[in-house]
Amino acid sequence: MFDFLFVRRNAPRWLILIIDVCISFTSIITAYFLRFNFNLPEAYFDSENLNSFYWVIPMVLLVRLISFLISRTYAGIVRYTGTKDAGRIFIVILFGSLFLGFSNYISFKYNGIYLIPFSVIGIDFLTNIFIMTFSRLFVKTVYMEYIAKSKQKENVLIFGINDLAIITKRTMLKDVDSKFKVIAFIDYTNVHKGQKLDGLSIYGINMLESVLLKHKISTMIFADKNVLAKIKEKALAACINNNIRILTLPDVNHWINGELSIKQIRQVKIDDLLERAPIKLDDAQIKRDTINKTILVTGAAGSIGSEIVRQLLRFNPNKIVVFDQAESPLYDLELELKEKYRFDKINVIIGNITDKYRLEKVFKTCRPSIIYHAAAYKHVPMMENNPAEAVRANVLGTKTLADLAMKYHVKKFVMVSTDKAVKPTNVMGASKRIAEIYTQSLNQFNETKFITTRFGNVLGSNGSVINRFRNQIEKGGPVTVTHPDITRFFMTIPEACQLVLEAGAMAAGGEIFVFDMGKSVKIIDLAKNMIKLSGLELGIDIEISITGLRPGEKLYEELLNDKENTLTTHHPQIMIGKVITFDHFEIKTLIKKLIKIGQGTDNFLIVKAMKEIVTDFISQNSVYSELDFQENIEKEPAKKTNGHKVKSLESNYLKGNQKTWVN
Q1: Phi then psi dihedrals of residue 319, to 5 deg
Q2: Cα-trace Rg, the chain
Q3: pLDDT tens digit string along 391-436?
Q4: What CA–CA distance (Å, rounded) separates 92 from 89?
Q5: Which helix (DSSP H) or strand (DSSP E) does residue 631 occupy?
Q6: Residue 491: exposed, middle, or buried by beta-carbon count in 10 A (0-12, 13-18, 19+)?
């Protein structure tokens, strides 16, 4: 029966209109009975009286019928009744009652008789609104409870008790096609546990595990954006351990027409699992440093460089010069800045940082006051196989840019470096360390303030392990991890770039700023969590494959050398690393030698020259490890080596490949 009434077709509009008129009839009769305590005077049954039922009831019903026809209150689908429908009913009944009251006044003025007692009009107004609204909500409730119940529902827990939590609950209730059924709310403060919110129970965070099991929760929605990172991390871990799907809300400014749509509630990303407390920036200091300045950003089309550009927009620079060799990404960035951010004070320049002629034209034309140097090659295995390119881009490119910054009196030069420059075990890390050493050595001239910022992996950057895992999961696996014990530090792109700006603004020159990267993350655990967040089961739906460490890769990353320590700054997430300093003229001679060797084709000679500059560069899982072996032999000639070195077939094969260099 319910299937016929609610699913197969909607009730005809004329039927709804008749029901509404019948409700009005019931309402006016009820109003009279209530007014006279169910003891109606006989005068109301005398047809000769103007105020008798024979004249009053038809008049009331006519007024209601005309108002319903004009307002079309009968045209809505009853089972989808919402607050707007209730508001329309209120207004229609109100105007009808006001008209009856006005008619009452006219009748008394000309005939000396009230057609309807004003108290009856008031009671009729209230009962009419109540019965019409209640009847619609009753039909809606019956539909939701009995018809929608036939669909398979997922029990949902909403994390948070704020306005967004209530909106989320009501959005799901309103969407009859939704497969979700909200069971309860979680209060992470434990202040309101045991109370009710919008008709549902509120549980404390300490009861989360038991609630998940007791109510067979399949999905939890994070509706509160202000949850402390530690609490959110525990809640997410509880969900992952119990195979609970985790969803989150979009930002309010992304809601469609200002309203939340159930289709916008998205799956939590691994980025959400690794996020930390929001960074508090000294906006005033950064603005003083950048306002009305011309700023050059190299590598501006990359993930870090482009985010630095976006972060700079709110500080009102005079002009931003975006410089990169990648044509299409640079064009996309230009469109984004102009169309999305309405920012046209940009100068888009395609070029290579190793091209001194091109760079000098940029400096002559644009005269930048501040440089954010994010251009670099960063992929460890690629640079391990192409050390000449690492030297050309990361060393020569940085040197060329830094020398021109000095020549054209740039105020600040902020270099984006990496944690792989600490005790480097690969060519990429060593090349960045050499770039650090050179720029730091220039501070002795006091012409330009050279600052280095050093941090680990950024989530979602080009080549990030997160993106690789995501692609592998979408393809059905396997998810490849190089080693079961490998760990990395992670930071979001906006977080890293905000700290770069803050560090650049606070710098006096010569510092290497080290960012607080939080706790290191085990990559295999990261892979497992991403698999669970995707709704897959490890070992059944998808596998994890251990592939072995790649050339130059190490198990653990560090942010400071053993010989270095840190000083605190006013920002809790930024420290100053006390690093070993180098004489500029000595390091310049060594780097010139390295660049000249880098123009050749012998990769071993190039890496050897790098090791002469960065003395703690010890290759790992790389064919260049034999250079460290040879160095140890030279340092300890008395030790026996049996007249030869043991080399694996794999080492010989790789060495053969390393000897071939293609420009």
Answers
A1: -160, 145
A2: 36
A3: 999 999 999 999 999 999 999 999 999 888 888 999 999 999 999 9
A4: 5
A5: helix 625-635
A6: buried
362, amino acid identity: V
Tell me the whole-structure pTM to 2 decimals: 0.67
Region for residue 253 given its phi and psi (left: phi exceeds 0; alpha: psi -120 to 50; beta: otherwise): alpha
In whole angstroms, give the CA distance from residue 42 to residue 519.
86
Whole-angstrom distance, CA of residue 570 vs CA of residue 568: 7
Residue 523 to residues 371, 456, 479, 484, 493, Cα–Cα distance (Å): 34, 14, 11, 8, 18
CB of 303 closer than 8 Å to CB of 462: yes
The residue from 412, 420, 432, 532 that is catalytic is 420
What residues have CB less than 8 Å from 141, skipping those under 6 apart? none
* 109 in active site: no
Nearest to 309 by CA among 288, 326, 328, 324: 324
Domains of the chain, start order: 2-148 (no CATH), 151-268 (3.40.50.720), 283-578 (3.40.50.720), 601-658 (no CATH)
For residue range 534-551, list pLDDT tens digits in order. Answer: 777 788 888 899 988 888
CA distance linking residue 629 with residue 636, whole number of Å: 11
Which residue shows structure tokens 């969900």? 239
